[in-house]
Specification:
Strand order of the largest sheet: 1-4
Order of helices and strands: EHHEEHEEEEHE
Shape: elongated
Number of helices: 4
Largest sheet: 2 strands, antiparallel
Radius of gyration: 19 Å
Number of strands: 8
Distance between the termini: 21 Å
Length: 140
């Protein structure tokens, strides 16, 4: 069980969605997709509660720009928005049982020219790893 803050959920959810959309080697793709989907399902309700609170705060502190309500970083009340939303993000969401997604350190790939199979280091963007490493993914 992990005690997650709203901020951890707010940052993890879209990055898990991005990870789910990546192309994976067939031999690991099903396991990775199932693991990520399970985590997303556990976080989804909390994520939308956070989004609803953010929308409420944007309506409270924002200004209408065309069809949208926005809080401009240089607006007089941007600090109030940041403070209220920041306080909300720091709140604990509760215990969530998370089984970490196991990402391979290396993957096997065929050379396009010679057809020989070779192991290559699996590469993923550091920004995804940083946001997800503590609670959601494990490199094996």
């Amino acid at each position: 069980m992990s005690v997650l803050t709203n901020q951890e959920i707010w940052l993890a959810y879209p990055n898990l969605m991005a990870l789910l959309k990546r192309q994976w080697p067939v031999d690991v793709s099903v396991a990775i997709a199932i693991s990520i989907t399970k985590i997303i399902a556990q976080l989804e309700e909390a994520y939308w509660v956070i989004d609803k609170e953010r929308t409420r705060l944007v309506r409270k502190y924002g200004v209408r720009v065309g069809e949208k309500m926005m809080v401009s970083p240089d607006a007089d009340n941007a600090g109030d928005f940041a403070l209220d939303f920041g306080e909300f993000l720091m709140q604990e969401c509760g215990n969530i049982k998370i089984e970490k997604v196991k990402l391979p350190r290396k993957i096997t790939s065929k050379c396009d020219k010679c057809g020989q199979e070779t192991e290559i280091l699996f590469q993923i963007e550091p920004n995804l790893l940083v946001l997800l490493a503590e609670h959601f993914i494990e490199v094996v």
